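Table S2 (continued). Query chain:
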Amino acid sequence: MAVVFTLLPLSFAFGGSRVTFVLLRDAPVIALAWWATAAVMWMWHVRVRRRLRVTGL
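Corresponding output:
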């Protein structure tokens, strides 16, 4: 889920000879909220990995 929330705001569309980042252009506040959610998920991922490494799983 962290990967999805990180990359989805970077989804793009081709328009003629231009590449347009759809979410960043149309709703930049939502894109920032998704990146904030992604940051929390990445921190949680690192925390879980560290805890599992200590237990040997």
